[in-house]
C-alpha cells in the first residue's frame, strides 16, 4: 500500500489496473477510497452474491459461478467485440453483475469472461472486478488489459537493467 500511496501522490492518474494478488480485502478497501480500479480475482476467492438455486445470498467460488451463469443466466450472456493489438477483432462472451467479495464491504462490478483471452491462455474463464459500477463491459476489459503493457515493461526492466522489485 505504501507504493500505491506514493504513486498516487506523485502522479495524477484516474484509475489503476492490478493483478489478482492485490485483489484482497485489505487492498480493495484501501484503494477504493482513493481511485477507480480494475483487476482480476483468483479462482479461490468467494463472491458474496445471490444464488439462484439456493434463492438466497451466499458465498460462491468463481468455478461455481461460471456453472450457474451457463445454467441460469445463459440468456444474459453478451458478446463483446474488441480490437486486438494487431488490429483484428476479438469477441468475448461475457456476463456482468454487481456483488461483493466475501468479507469485503466494497461494492464491485464483476465481468466474467467465459473463455480464454487467446490461444496461449490456460484459463477457461476470467473474473474481472472494478469499483466503477457504471463502467461498460468494454471499459472494464480494456482497462484491465492495459496491465499487460505494464507487465511487459517490468519484464524488460528486470531483464535488461536487472531491476529488482521488492514487495
Describe the protein in words.
- This protein is an alpha+beta fold.
- The protein has one domain.
- Helix content is 31%, strand content 31%.
- The chain has helices at residues 2-10, 25-32, 62-72, 137-145, 147-161, and strands at residues 15-18, 36-40, 47-51, 56-60, 78-83, 89-101, 108-114, 125-130.
- Strands 1, 2, 3, 4, 5, 6, 7 and 8 form an eight-stranded mixed beta sheet that branches.
- A hairpin with a 6-residue loop joins strand 6 and strand 7 (108-114).
- The longest helix has 15 residues, at 147-161.
- It is globular and about 55 Å long.
- The termini are close together.
- The mean pLDDT is 85.
Give the topology, please.
Blueprint: H1 2-10, E1 15-18, H2 25-32, E2 36-40, E3 47-51, E4 56-60, H3 62-72, E5 78-83, E6 89-101, E7 108-114, E8 125-130, H4 137-145, H5 147-161
Parallel strand pairs: 1-2
Antiparallel strand pairs: 2-8, 3-4, 3-6, 5-6, 6-7, 7-8
Q: How would you briefly describe this protein structure?
A:
The protein has 167 residues and is α+β, with helices and mostly antiparallel strands.
**Element order: H for helix, E for strand:** HEHEEEHEEEEHH
Major pleated sheet: 8 strands, mixed
Query: How many domains, as an integer?
Result: 1
> Helix content range of the residues, please?
25-40%
Number of helices in the DSSP assignment: 5
Rg from alpha-carbon coordinates: 17 Å
Give the integer mean of the pLDDT values: 85
Low-confidence sequence ranges: none
Structural class, by secondary structure, is: alpha+beta
Shape: globular
**Relative strand content:** 25-35%
Multimeric organization: single chain
End-to-end C-alpha gap:
10 Å
Tell how many strands the DSSP assignment holds.
8
Amino acid at each position: 500500500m505504501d507504493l500505491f500511496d506514493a504513486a498516487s501522490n506523485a502522479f495524477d492518474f484516474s484509475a489503476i489496473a492490478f493483478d489478482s494478488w492485490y485483489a484482497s480485502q485489505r487492498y480493495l478497501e484501501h484503494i477504493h477510497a482513493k481511485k477507480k480500479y480494475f483487476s482480476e480475482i483468483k479462482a479461490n476467492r468467494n463472491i458474496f452474491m445471490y444464488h439462484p438455486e439456493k434463492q438466497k445470498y451466499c458465498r460462491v467460488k468463481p468455478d461455481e459461478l461460471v456453472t450457474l451463469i451457463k445454467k441460469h443466466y445463459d440468456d444474459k450472456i453478451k458478446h463483446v467485440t474488441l480490437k486486438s493489438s494487431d488490429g483484428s477483432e476479438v469477441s468475448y462472451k461475457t456476463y456482468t453483475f454487481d456483488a461483493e467479495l466475501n468479507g469485503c464491504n466494497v461494492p464491485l462490478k464483476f465481468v466474467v469472461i467465459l473463455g480464454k483471452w487467446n490461444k496461449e491462455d490456460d484459463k477457461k474463464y476470467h473474473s474481472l472486478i472494478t469499483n466503477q459500477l457504471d463502467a461498460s463491459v468494454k471499459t472494464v476489459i480494456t482497462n484491465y488489459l492495459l496491465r499487460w503493457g505494464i507487465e511487459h515493461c517490468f519484464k524488460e526492466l528486470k531483464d535488461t537493467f536487472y531491476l529488482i522489485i521488492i514487495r
